[in-house]
C-alpha cells in the first residue's frame, strides 16, 4: 500500500502526464447518444501504472459517472480520465445531465433510465463474453500443448525451473484463459467485477436516483454496486439554488440571457415550491435525499455478484463537498450523511477538513478510512463540483484511500 506522501507524488505525476496529452486524447470516450458517453477497454488492458495508484484495488466491471446539470462533455470527461487511468480494463460510462432531461415527463425519464440500465447490462455481458471466449481458447491451446509429444521437452528447454520471462500481463492472461485457480498476487489482478458510482451535484444524483428506482423494481442483470462517491450533493432545493443551477450554462455567454433565464426559473420555482408546501407533496430534493438513503432502493433483484463487504448491505459511500459551494449548502450534505448513519446503524461520520487553513494536514488528505464505510471530506474554498480542479491531488488521493479501505472483498 502506498504511503500518503507517495500517493500524492504519484497523483502529481499522473496530473502532469494527463495535462501534456492532446485534448482529443484526454478521455477516449465514444458517444452513445447525446447524453451518454462510454469508454470501452482494450482487449488486453491491465493496470500498468505510471504511478501504481490503484494497484491494490480490485477493478470494477463498470464505472458509472453522472455529470452535474448542463455540464459539457469536455468537463465531465476530465473526471472520467482518472478512472480510466486507474482501471483501463473497466468500462466507464458517463451520463450527462441537462435541464431538458430534468424537466422531461415521467415516461421519458423512465425510458431514458431503462436505456442506461440496458447499456450497463450489455457492457457487463460483453466483458463476461470476452472472458469466456478467452477461457475457451486457452483450454483448447492447453489441450493442444499437452497432446504434443515434445511439449515437456520444449518447455524445459525454453525455461529452466524458476526461470521465466513471462510478464505480469502474460501471467494474468494465462490465469484467466486456462481457468487457473492460482491465488492472484494482488486485488488489481482480479477480473473486473461490480459497479463503482461517481455522481455530481443534484443533477447527477437525480439521474442516479432514477436508476436506483428502476433497478430496485426490475430484474435487469447489472453488476452489484461496490462503491458510491457523491460529489457536491445532495442539497435542499430553494428557488435561488435551482434557478442558479439552471442558468449556469448561460453565465459565460450573455449576461442579459443569464439573468432573464434565472429570473424566470426563480419565479417558477417559487410558485412550484409554494404549491408543494400547500399540498404537502414532497419536493424533488426531498425525494432524492430519501431514495439515496432508502435501503430498499439499493436491493436490486437482478444484480450480479456480491453487493458489498458490509453485512447490512450498505454500499460504502464517500461525500466530497465544499463550504464555498453556492448551490449545495454543506449543512445539507452533512445532515444527509447523519441520516444515513442512523438508518444503517453506522457511527455518525466525522467531517474531515481538507484545507490546511481549517486544520487539515497532508496525512489527513489521504487519511485513514478503515473505521467506517461512511465518510465526509469537506473543502473550504472549492467551487461547486470543483474540488477535483481546486485540489487535484487531495481529491483523488482521498478517493484512492477510500477505495483501498472499502472497495475490496475481505479475501483480497
Automatic annotation (TrEMBL):
Nucleus as UniProt keyword: yes
Keyword Methyltransferase: no
Compartmental location: Endomembrane system; Nucleus membrane
Biased composition (Basic and acidic residues): 140-150
Superkingdom of source: Eukaryota
Membrane topology value: Single-pass membrane protein
InterPro entries listed in its UniProt record: DUF829_TMEM53
Cellular component GO terms held in the UniProt record: nuclear membrane
Compositionally biased residues, Polar residues: 151-166
Pfam family, one: DUF829
Protein's name in the database: DUF829-domain-containing protein
Region (Disordered): 140-166, 353-372
Keywords per UniProt: Membrane, Nucleus, Transmembrane, Transmembrane helix
Organism lineage: Eukaryota, Fungi, Dikarya, Basidiomycota, Ustilaginomycotina
